[in-house]
Design a protein that fits this description.
InterPro entries: TrmO-like_N (IPR023370), YaeB-like (IPR040372), YaeB-like_sf (IPR036413), YaeB_N_sf (IPR036414). Keywords: Methyltransferase, S-adenosyl-L-methionine, Transferase. It comes from Trichlorobacter thiogenes. Pfam families: TrmO_N. Residues 1-132 form the TsaA-like domain. 3% of the residues lie in helices and 30% in strands. The mean pLDDT is 87. The strands form 2 sheets. Strands 1-2-7-6-3-8 form a 6-stranded antiparallel barrel. The chain has one helix at residues 125-128; strands at residues 5-8, 28-33, 49-55, 65-66, 75-76, 89-100, 103-107, 115-122. The protein has 1 helix and 8 strands. The chain is globular and about 45 Å long. By secondary structure, it is mainly beta. The chain has one domain (5-124): YaeB-like (Elongation Factor Tu (Ef-tu), domain 3), CATH 2.40.30.70.
Amino acid sequence: MHAIGTIYTPYLTKQDCPIQPQYATNAAGRVELLAQYAEGLKDIETFSHIYLLYLFDRSGEIILARPTFLDETPHGIYASRHPCRPNNIGLSIVRLLGRDGSALMVEGVDMLNETPLLDIKPYIPQYDAIPDANPGWTAQVPWRQKPEGRE
């Protein structure tokens, strides 16, 4: 895989970065595709939300079972959204505010500034929202509250 663009955000350090888009609802960002991929954005502005797949290029040491930002109990990396992963792939759903050529203005960014972009996919509620999905171990965590010390 290779980067198809760059995500620009207000977050310069991991400590400043929200842990999920839910905690960054007003955080504005800009997604800039490389010129050779701009044609792939045709009709993207018809969607209200998009998935951004990106590289956790500054994530840190990979530990396969570790505490998360939600609690101190170790969980397997594939049962969490911790950024320190073997393939360092991040996924966020952001609100699409507009398009200017090969650039997208978005809201709800939760990644570091100048994060390499791997892909963009439209969020389609008919396919992507699963009302009866089980939240797993996170059902025991008051996840709707902002984690302490985090934006």
